[in-house]
Amino acid sequence: RRALQMVRKKAAEWGVDREKVGVLGFSAGGHVAAMLAAAWDFPQELGPEGRAADADTYDACDARPDCTILCYPVITATGEPSGIVQPGMPYRSVGPSLEGFPRPLRHHGTCVVLLGEKPDGSFNDNDLRRISAELWVRRIEILR
Fold first, then answer.
1. Residue 67 has what pLDDT?
2. Are the beta carbons of 100 and 85 closer than 8 angstroms?
3. Residues 42/28, Cβ–Cβ less than 8 Å
4. Spacing of C-alpha 90 from chain mean position
5. Residue, of 38 and 141, whose pLDDT is higher
6. Distance CA 8, CA 61 (A)
7. Region of residue 100 (phi > 0: left; psi between -120 and 50: alpha; otherwise: beta)
């Protein structure tokens, strides 16, 4: 978020059109880009926002990307089923799900990195919803 605001703030200096700033992300970076695109205004429900020492310099700049490109992103952290756990599927992908049982759509390893993991391999449901980019998408009418 702050990086996008910085690009807009320094657009003239860097020779960038401040009305054409986008984000691109692959895999976990796709998650970051998706969250920025969906929650660019940092809704309070996401939790406390960190304050950088130079926050006032950039806060006035819009953090909404003008375009977003997601390449094989991690979008969801919910436990929605996505097929069946097959033999040999890695723990980092399916977590503690047993072979032959429903496979969660989320990528277990990403959730571990973002949230930590309980000893039984589970996560707090509120935290999973908080980092699920698809749940932050909403209709916003912006006049430019």
1. 93
2. yes
3. no
4. 23
5. 38
6. 6
7. left
